[in-house]
Amino acid sequence: MRFAERVSELGLGLSLTEGLTDPKRLRELVERLDTEPAWRERVARFQDSVREGGGAVRAAEALLRFASASAAPRPADRGSVEA
Q1: At 19, phi and psi to the nearest 5?
Q2: Is 0.85 topped by the overall pTM?
């Protein structure tokens, strides 16, 4: 799933159609996001949940742990020979 589609699915923003070239339509969408309180409320709740979950720091730590575990040699990779 594309990122924009997921953002739209969560109600945190709008997914723009590829090739959108009408400045008037783009302005309408931006004004809709800016003026409808429900958008801001959903984004604020999402931000709170990200912070409560550890935010970007926790995500970065998880990625580093995953990368370290993926890079660590496994017993079979160490050249051990089973008798």
Answers
A1: 80, 10
A2: no
Q: Which residues contact 1 (CB under 8 A, 6 or more apart)?
A: 9
* CB within 8 Å of 12: residues ≥ 6 apart: 39, 42, 43, 46
b/e sequence 33-42, b meaning 16+ C-beta within 10 Å: eeeeeebeee
How many helices (H) and strands (E) the chain has is answered by 4, 0
Total residues belonging to the chain: 83
Place of tokens 């550890």: 54
The predicted model gives 44-52 an average pLDDT of: 89
Burial of 79 (0-12, 13-18, 19+ CB in 10 A): exposed
11-38, pLDDT tens digit by residue?
Answer: 898 877 766 778 898 898 889 889 999 9
Lookup: tokens for 60? 């970065």
